[in-house]
Amino acid sequence: MAYFARVVHRLSFWICWVAVVALAGMLLLTCSDVILRRVGRPIVGTYELVGFFAVVVVAFPIAYTQILRGHIAIEFLVSRFPKRFQTAIDSINYVLGIGVFSLLAWQCCVLGTKLMSVGRVSETLQMPFFPFVYGAAFGCAMMCVALLIDLSNLLAKLVRK
């Protein structure tokens, strides 16, 4: 399991860097468009590209953020409870998170397949939507795997006690 966790950690780290590059691309594209708009030469399709990049920026880093424990947690109240109760709450949260993100990944795959089959593309640049929807599905699936690893670590710690 440790090898699998390292692979997931490394993969989530690299897709997080893809999101960083997409965010930098959004910044450069938007700033360039604003500057060029002032001289009468706006960049065609900026709105669409920023939207596509936003999918990558939101979906790709969520698994790595989970691995780093960077998501918002309400520990003020829970930390006052006994360790057994804290463990129960954590495991319920992990199970619910796995459920939610697996549903999101599944429905993104369904939508991506539908968009690909009908050939849906953006209006200005004629770029297909489905790769970005599949990218969102991949980000959600990676989050499920990260939560599953956390849940298995939690249960392993429980068994060791």
Polypeptide structure, described:
- It is a single chain.
- This protein is mostly helical.
- It has one domain (2-160).
- It has helices at residues 2-38, 46-59, 62-67, 75-78, 83-118, 130-160.
Structural class: mainly alpha
Instruction: Assign a percent range to the helix content.
Output: over 70%
Rounded mean pLDDT is: 93
Report the sheet with the most strands, covering strand number, pairing sense and barrel closure. none
Shape: elongated
| % residues in beta strands | under 5%
Straight-line distance between termini: 19 Å
**Gyration radius, to the nearest Å?**
20 Å
Compute the number of structural domains.
1
Q: Extract low-pLDDT stretches.
A: none
Number of strands: 0
Helix and strand sequence: HHHHHH
Count the helices. How many?
6
